[in-house]
Amino acid sequence: MNPRHLFGISILVAALLIVGAIFALAVSAEAVLPASTAQETLRIAPNSSGMSEDEFMVYAGRMEQRYGPEAVSALRLHIPYETRGSSPEPAMTPNIRYVSAWNGSLEVRNDDGVVLASSDNALVLYALDLTDEEGREHYYWWQWGAARNREDTRMGDASNLRNFWSRVAFENSSSNLLIYAPDSDIYGTEDTVTLRFGLEFPGPDCHSISRDFVLHQGKIRPKPGECRVGSAGRYAVDWVGNHEGTQSIYGICEERREDSTGSAVLWTYCLTTRQF
Question: What is the pTM of this model?
């Protein structure tokens, strides 16, 4: 073959390889778009009023209609008995009293304003009807969230849930964070997992909190770098995964107050999704 022909073929092959590489990079860049995040923080002062118990029950019922009973089965922590079909569930925490609750919602949108995912979030404050050996009051901060991705009816699935979390942080040392749950990673794929929270008070009248929920995919964990016990502590419950559908989270932390008023709380909730 003529050497000039060989040289021309070599140039053509090299050009095709370069174009192919550029095309592969472009397809790769199109396949996974950057994640989008929505986040809000609410400051709850000691005298901040939230939902009354009746208002909270209405809210919980509305969330059950929106996400289904599976996602909110453990939202009503203080209800002695809840009927699921014909079988009542016994109370696991008879010594807690409802104080108040706060709620908020998030939407993640793309550049065109299309909602990719949304979440509803609640923070419920309970008082323990017991005091410790020094007469100090104890409270539980019960964190709940449910998130789901939205679908584009023309293009199919528009996004997947990637991460959402809820954090409670006390502003000053008048509040001590004692323990929290979950305190380790919980994994599952369409599994029923259990959130357990042990009380530090001994005695026959005290019970641990145990609530089941379905982990469709990924893991629920204490958020790295966002959990600290002691004065002005903080705790964040965190879900991480890659899920198309609905997922709920639960978390709880215990506060011991050095005085009757306690500290202001910063409640932050966050939702992240990725469009494919």
Answer: 0.80
